Sequence to fold (68 residues):
Amino acid sequence: MIEEVDFFGVFLPSLFVWMVLAFLATMLLRHLLSAAGAYRFIWHRPLFDLALYVVTLGTVVWTASYLA
Fold:
């Protein structure tokens, strides 16, 4: 089921909203990983960050579909 979100009269695809939420969550996770020093053990940081975003996006979409 494809739904749209009405944002002040502008219809946005729900995937766009989930992508923004996943991006914000990924930024928070990246900050926490950096503060914990976990990036010392990661070989390719940009690739890891991309994978982290994809996993976070999947989690956000799954959670949204589960709660709906």
The helical segments are 14-36, 45-67. The CA atoms of residues 4 and 13 lie 5 Å apart. The chain has one domain: 4-67.
